[in-house]
Write a structure and sequence with these properties.
single chain; mainly alpha
Length: 188
């Protein structure tokens, strides 16, 4: 094999190994059970600390990610777990085409559905009906897709996993809206 081909071969093997390592890390972090969490009131956990609200929505989301989401496993706070779930769903769709989708991803969607649409959720309580409907539609879209391997016609291309940022940004914005109204960190 010429040197160029060997070099490309080893680069592709390294990329595959890196992707497999990342996939394993993502699966390990999302495979910890999303247990039922009482989202009805801030008393679902002790509230110590506040979400830093300086800057734009992206700055606030980044603060939540950096301060409330652990490097692996479930977050200890409602705000951290919501942003972690959104990012896991985005990463799986955008980087894997949802090929690793399993019941754990369904649990993440169910968790977000409860957070954003349940009448008993502290976050949903701060949202208007239009925003709740938008969140429900976005979550429905995330969980209803054709895998790229199942697509047999370009007619159904809009049914592929959702990879555009707008949907994930809307879900994040619902969380940020809650944080602006109630910046106290809620521990699970």
């Amino acid at each position: 094999m010429p040197i160029e081909q060997l070099s490309r071969y080893f680069m592709s093997i390294t990329q595959i190994q890196d992707t497999q390592i990342q996939d394993t890390q993502i699966q390990d972090s999302h495979s910890q059970d999303i247990q039922s969490i009482d989202l009805r009131s801030p008393e679902c956990g002790a509230t110590h600390g506040r979400v830093q609200l300086t800057g734009c929505s992206q700055d606030i989301a980044l603060w939540i990610w950096e301060n409330l989401v652990p490097s692996s496993g479930r977050a200890d706070t409602l705000q951290g777990e919501v942003i972690r779930a959104i990012e896991l769903l985005a990463w799986e769709a955008q980087n894997n085409g949802n090929l690793n989708w399993d019941k754990e991803f369904d649990r993440l969607v169910d968790f977000l559905r409860e957070v954003f649409t349940s009448s008993g959720s502290v976050i949903a309580a701060t949202m208007n009906e239009e925003d709740k409907l938008s969140a429900a539609e976005d979550l429905h879209r995330l969980s209803n897709f054709l895998l790229p391997t199942e697509l047999d016609s370009r007619v159904y291309i809009e049914e592929l996993p959702y990879v555009k940022e707008d949907l994930y940004d809307r879900l994040t914005e619902h969380l940020i809206g809650y944080c602006r109204q109630s910046p106290e960190v809620i521990y699970l």
